[in-house]
Each structure stands twice: as structure tokens, then as C-alpha cells.
Amino acid sequence: MPTQPIRLEILLGSVREGRFGPVVADWFLRRAGQHPAFDAVLLDLADTPLPLDHAGTPDVERFRRRVAAADAFVMVTPEYNHGYPAALKNAIDTAKEEWRAKPVGFVSYGGLSGGLRATEQLRLVTAEVHMISVRQTVSFHRARKRFDADGETSDGAAIDGADRMLDQLAWWAAAARDARAERPYPA
After folding, report:
1. Cα separation of 120 and 142, whole Å?
2. Residue 103 belongs to some domain of the structure
3. 110 part of a folded domain
4. What is the pLDDT of residue 12?
5. What's the average model confidence in pLDDT over 84-105?
6. pLDDT of residue 75
7. What's the pLDDT score for residue 3?
8. Has residue 1 got a pLDDT over 80?
9. For 8-50, how does the pLDDT look when each residue is reduced to its tens digit (9 = 90+)?
10. Which of 159, 137, 135, 136 has the alpha carbon at shortest distance from 146?
11. Domain at 64, CATH number
């Protein structure tokens, strides 16, 4: 385990009214909170106004500083029309250098696909901003049926996947943080 806690930002990518994402994101936040390596916080894009033109507003500057301060990320995404939400793409595009050389994991949810197509597309986008995508993912197929009234799940594959992903993120975050401290990332 790293000596300093790893700052993990969990981005909730859906901003739709009536969204199911908070249930999934809150569950994952609780899992991450149980992992000794992390100081995990939720960044809900519905509460983070980011303009589409990426103008340098105070909200944009606060967002960029928060991304820069993080050591690792998890993107919680639904699958909309075989893709990920526009708000999540806009968030990725709003920052640039701040994402570089930092690991990212994905928690997806949806219908039959469980959001896996959104995850695979996000792997391409995060690679372009020089993030380190960990292999382990978590996906919830028919997500609304996987959680009880308290926001808990008994989905063993998701629980196991979350723990494995957190271990992978901890390893990469510590290694990347040490590497960035020794030498700036060459972009």
C-alpha cells in the first residue's frame, strides 16, 4: 500500500433527470471507502456546470484543479444509444494535461449490455488524453434489478470486480504518482 492516500475521483457521468447513476456511484464510493489505499470522493457532473465551449469560467477552473489534484479516476457511466453520455465527454475534453499519466477504471450500467460498449469507447477517449486504463471493469446488466432499496447489490461478479479494479488502480496510481514526481510526463 502507498504511504500517502491515493486521491480517487469517482466521476458520475450521467446528468439526466431520473437517472439511476447515483445508486451505482454511491455503491462504488462505499466500496472504494473500504479500500485502505484510497481517499475517495464523488464528482457528480450534474453538480458541475461545464460549458460546451470549454471557456475558462470559474467552474471550469475549479474542475481542472480538482482533476489535477487527483491520483486516479473511476468513471461511472450508463450506456445511451450504444455510447456514453455527452456530459462525460465534455468533462474529459474540458481538461487536458490534468488527466495525463493517471489511471482510470470504469463502472458501467445499462440494459442487456451492462454499459460495456460505453466502457470500450471510453477506453479510446481516455487513451487519447494519456490516461492509463486498467483492465478490470465493473458492469451491471439490467442495473435496476441488481440493487436493493438500500442501494446494495449481491452481484458477486460486480463486488469481486470492484475489489480487483481498486487493487489495480492503487498499483497504477502509486507507480504513476512516483513517476510523475521523479520526471514530468512527456506529452
Report:
1. 18
2. yes
3. yes
4. 98
5. 97
6. 98
7. 75
8. no
9. 999 999 999 999 999 999 999 999 999 999 999 999 999 999 9
10. 159
11. 3.40.50.360
Q: Work out the end-to-end distance of the chain between its first and last CA atoms, rounded to an integer number of angstroms.
A: 28
Which residue has cell 487527483? 70
Count of the separate structural domains present in the chain: 1
Whether the per-residue pLDDT at 72 is higher than 80: the answer is: yes
Residue type present at position 7: R
Q: Could you tell me if residue 172 is inside a domain?
A: yes
Could you please report the per-residue DSSP string of 49-86?
Answer: ---TT----HHHHHHHHHHHH-SEEEEEEE-BTTB--H
Separation CA 167–CA 165 (nearest Å): 5
Q: What's the domain range around 129?
A: 6-182
User: What is the value of pTM for the model shown?
Assistant: 0.96
d(C-alpha 150, C-alpha 83), whole Å? 28
Residue 187 lies in a domain: no
How deeply is 145 buried, as exposed, middle or buried, from its count of CB atoms within 10 A (0-12, 13-18, 19+)? exposed
Closest CA to 91 of 117, 127, 116, 59: 59
